[in-house]
């Protein structure tokens, strides 16, 4: 971390953040921490220098982070990476060239000392049907913002992340079909003969209020499920009451998710210890969300030492 040329108050804020954040350390070649974080309008308006250092401090607790609401302007992302240090790299999608996607990207930020990008990076396209009149293949729905997938390796574990930011719409009914089709898309990709890897972890901001919602039923239609460490306890809005953000996986394929995981509460119902009134007299909770975010990061830990699993697979094949 390169927390250089900061004032005393920002240094105090960083120490306050470290007191608030409780994430176990990753272990090289054994365990990594991955997260999804909707960083509100990240890049649309230049953030204060203190905010750049605070965001970098939060991100530094993870080895790989999916970022949603990443704007077309990447300058603030570059500022954050400069604080994180030269080992941090990013893979990101492009924006939709219309107003429907809110000019947002999805990005994967990772520490190359721990995680390697292995080549696959692509947007998911919605299913299309042939129009009998025109002969053209046309999408049944639109996701507005295309889900983005990328392949990575940590230790000897290869996996694919797919991240989405489902539009809010006019209500839950507008989210149901996009979520259901995303679940179907992931399932078909998993079953594809030449799929890169069946260890697919689905994450992002799905705007799902809770696990009892029909929206949660939609995204889990084809047996995607939540890691045990997140069940029943992960509110990712600042009040920690709504489970908008999710991490889901296929239990039958991915055995590497352990019992560590949760939400990073950098807010703690108090932003003034990070942004004191003397220095930020006009800040209120709403403006705070445009400096940090209105979402909290959601994270899990992966075991990446796979030798025993590989031996077990060999025993089963040879028995």
Automatic annotation (TrEMBL):
Residues 35-249 form the Endonuclease/exonuclease/phosphatase domain. Keywords: Endonuclease, Hydrolase, Nuclease. One of its GO terms (molecular function) is endonuclease activity. It holds the Pfam family Exo_endo_phos. It comes from the Archaea. InterPro entries: Endo/exonu/phosph_ase_sf, Endo/exonuclease/phosphatase. This is Endonuclease. The lineage of its organism: Archaea, Nitrososphaerota, Nitrososphaeria, Nitrosopumilales, Nitrosopumilaceae.
């Amino acid at each position: 971390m390169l927390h250089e040329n900061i004032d005393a108050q920002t240094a105090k804020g960083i120490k306050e953040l470290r007191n608030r954040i409780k994430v176990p350390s990753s272990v090289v070649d054994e365990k990594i921490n991955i997260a999804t974080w909707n960083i509100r309008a990240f890049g649309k308006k230049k953030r204060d220098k203190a905010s750049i250092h605070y965001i970098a401090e939060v991100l530094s607790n993870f080895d790989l982070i999916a970022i949603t609401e990443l704007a077309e302007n990447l300058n603030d992302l570059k500022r954050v990476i400069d604080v994180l240090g030269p080992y941090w790299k990013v893979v990101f999608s492009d924006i939709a060239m219309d107003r429907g996607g809110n000019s947002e990207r999805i990005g994967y930020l990772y520490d190359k000392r721990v995680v390697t990008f292995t080549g696959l990076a692509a947007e998911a396209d919605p299913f299309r049907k042939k129009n009998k009149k025109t002969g053209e293949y046309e999408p049944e729905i639109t996701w507005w913002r295309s889900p983005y997938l990328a392949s990575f390796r940590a230790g000897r574990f290869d996996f694919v992340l797919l991240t989405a930011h489902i539009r809010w719409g006019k209500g839950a009914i507008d989210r149901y079909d996009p979520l259901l089709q995303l679940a179907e898309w992931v399932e078909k990709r998993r079953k594809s003969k030449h799929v890169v890897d069946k260890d697919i972890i689905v994450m992002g901001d799905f705007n799902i209020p809770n696990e009892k919602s029909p929206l949660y039923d939609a995204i889990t239609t084809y047996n995607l499920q939540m890691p045990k460490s997140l069940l029943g306890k992960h509110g990712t809005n600042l009040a920690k009451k709504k489970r908008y953000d999710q991490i889901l996986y296929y239990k039958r394929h991915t055995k590497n998710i352990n019992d560590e995981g949760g939400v990073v509460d950098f807010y703690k119902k108090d932003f003034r210890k990070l942004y004191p009134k003397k220095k930020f007299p006009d800040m209120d909770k709403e403006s705070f969300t445009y400096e940090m975010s209105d979402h909290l990061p959601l994270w899990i830990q992966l075991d990446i030492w796979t030798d025993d699993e590989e031996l077990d697979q060999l025993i089963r094949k040879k028995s």
